[in-house]
Design brief:
Distance between the termini: 57 Å
Strand content: 35-45%
Radius of gyration: 30 Å
Strand order of the largest sheet: 17-18-19-20-21-22-23-26-27-28-29
Length: 588
């Protein structure tokens, strides 16, 4: 027979199976299928992801059955993760789960994966930490469960637990900030290409801990990447070009010679203000000058997918360049992904995937440090009557005469033109799965599987505040940037995990059940060091040329082991769903 969408368009890769028996197949690129069924009357069901399933009674002697599937608007026919190697239809799921499709993620451009997820998961709080290029956000599914621990969920891509760490770059050493959490780091979720994602399952309930352990206390986000489909190769190219722009300024006051005298704090300031406001006060829009860039940004995506016989493949590449709206800021992300599915004989299937990523960002100072090195904080204390965004014949910026007496705080335009805050990340994620169909008959299906993978990245940061930058201290409050400072750091992280398990699926009259068990191992390794150099001479930008240096170095290693048992059953003709799980784990 043939499977179509509402009787017209052929539907490829739809499944057609005999109800209650291990007999089935998938449609080809023309929507056609062929099954050998037992003698007598049988019930045949056709289904496909995103469409409502149809079950038809086939009389003995009938040789052709066609199906016309309709769109599943409520997505009740989709399947969701319930265990390490099991899924269930969403209409039967007993846990709180949200799904996001590839179409929803890539409908409009987004800075990063987490920003693409904003507003698409009910009950999830997804906030971008700042507007710096390269992303950087926080995802919170459940309420804060710890006063001192992390609140972000666990992220899993194709069965591999990945890192979403934010590596500290010691920027506070340069800015004088008292809080290292304001260093404006990038979480590693920003490396992921949203265009590679097929669907996302957000496991909100506590039952996720039975699948992934105590790390899943704050929920789990399960990401499945795209796979190839049997048929002719499909080549896709997407090119985007656009600009970013400042959406909303904080605004600043327009002064007159009278009002400026009322606003300044002492006689020295009053005299300075009077010299700039003799008849009228000039007005300089600092925020527009600092954040008014609209340079073009580009994104190029290519992909190739297809399959023949027992092989399916998917290959993609991304090159994205974002121009920041602030002076000397921007980000570039490059990724290459390859997924391969191979059937060996009739019992073994192998799935392997690899993803290589490179992320480079120039982030400037774009978080709130409350130490006058943050432009917006400094602008709040600087009346907009002095032209700070200019240079003299020697190329020097003017001192910022505000806000304290005749002294000066940092000039943000000088800071953003001369300071470098760069981050370079190389990353690779590998995943693999081998499934062996040990036994199969009309009522039982036993599978053994091995899955594993690794996530490794290396993050290098380079921050330099040259000696040409001005700095002024006001009592215990630092008024600007520490000049002559350089920070060079490198951090590496490796996450690896593997699972050996088995699944026994049973089918009876009006019921079906799945039992699974297995052993999991996981390892985490981290190595981080930074060199801080102070007292750079003119034209010096390396720590080796600093008058004094300090080194910080940390290493960590964690080993986890776990076992699990899980039983799921659909009873009373799928009217009742019962699930129970036991898990034991230990960590070093």
């Amino acid at each position: 027979g043939k499977v179509t969408i509402t009787g017209e368009t052929p539907l490829q890769d739809a499944s057609v199976a005999v109800v209650g028996q291990a007999i089935g197949g998938r449609t080809n690129e023309k929507g056609e299928y062929r099954l050998r069924v037992p003698a007598g009357d049988v019930a045949v069901m056709s289904r496909a992801m995103g469409y409502k399933r149809i079950t038809t009674r086939v009389a003995a002697g009938q040789s052709t059955v066609n199906f016309a599937l309709e769109k599943d608007v409520l997505q009740l026919e989709g399947v969701t993760v319930t265990g390490v190697a099991s899924t269930i239809e969403k209409r039967s799921a007993a846990t709180a789960i949200s799904s996001v499709s590839a179409e929803e993620l890539t409908r409009i451009p987004s800075v990063s994966f987490e920003s693409a997820l904003q507003g698409k998961v009910v009950g999830a709080s997804i906030n971008m930490n700042n507007g710096a290029p390269g992303g950087g956000g926080q995802v919170q599914i459940r309420g804060a469960s710890s006063l001192i621990g992390k609140i972000d969920p666990l992220f899993v891509i194709d069965g591999v637990i990945i890192s979403n760490a934010v590596r500290g770059n010691r920027l506070s050493v340069v800015t004088g900030s008292l809080n290292s959490s304001e260093e404006n780091g990038t979480n590693r979720l920003a490396d992921i290409n949203p265009g590679d994602i097929e669907n996302i399952e957000v496991l909100k309930g506590a039952a996720a801990s039975a699948i992934y352990g105590s790390q899943a206390t704050n929920g789990v986000i399960v990401i499945t990447t795209k796979k190839g489909a049997i048929g002719m190769p499909k080549f896709n190219v997407t090119q985007r070009m656009g600009t970013y722009q400042l959406m909303r300024k904080q605004g600043s006051r327009h002064f007159t010679p009278t009002t400026i005298q009322e606003a300044v704090g002492n006689a020295d300031m009053a005299a300075l203000a009077a010299s700039n406001c003799k008849t009228t006060c000039p007005y300089y829009d600092y925020q527009q000058q600092m954040y008014g860039r609209t340079d073009p940004s580009t994104e190029t995506t290519i992909s190739l997918s297809g399959g023949a016989n027992n092989t399916r493949y998917f290959v993609s590449a991304l090159d994205r360049q974002d121009a920041g709206i602030a002076i000397n800021t921007g980000a570039r992300r490059q990724t290459v992904r390859a997924n391969l599915d191979q059937a060996i004989g009739g019992k073994i299937t192998v799935t392997v995937g690899s993803n290589v990523m490179h992320s480079f960002s120039q982030r400037g100072i774009s978080n709130n440090d409350n130490a006058f090195s943050s432009p917006i904080y400094g602008f709040g204390y600087t009346p907009a009557i002095a032209n700070l965004n200019t240079r003299d014949a020697a190329g020097n910026f003017p001192l910022n005469p505000f806000p304290y007496g005749s002294s000066s705080s940092s000039n943000p335009f000088q800071t953003f033109n001369l300071l470098k805050n760069n981050e370079d990340v190389y990353r690779m994620i590998l995943n693999g799965r081998v499934n062996y169909s040990a036994y199969s008959d009309s009522r039982n299906n036993v599978n053994l599987s091995f899955s594993g993978g690794a996530d490794r990245f290396s993050s290098e940061n380079y921050i330099v505040a040259p000696s040409a930058l001005q700095f002024q201290a006001f009592g215990s409050t630092q008024g600007g940037i520490y000049p002559g400072t350089v920070i060079q750091g490198d951090g590496t992280s490796l996450l690896s995990n593997a699972t050996i398990g088995g699944t026994w699926a049973r089918t009876g009259s009006g019921w079906n059940s799945t039992f699974q068990t297995g052993i999991q191992v996981e390892g985490r390794r981290a190595n981080d060091f930074n060199i801080v150099g102070r007292g750079l001479g003119p034209q010096q930008v390396n720590a080796a040329g600093a008058a004094n240096t300090t080194v910080t170095h940390s290493q960590s290693a964690i080993n986890n082991q776990a076992y699990y048992l899980q039983e799921e059953a659909q009873l009373l003709n799928e009217k009742l769903y019962v699930s129970a799980a036991v898990r034991g784990e230990r960590s070093s």
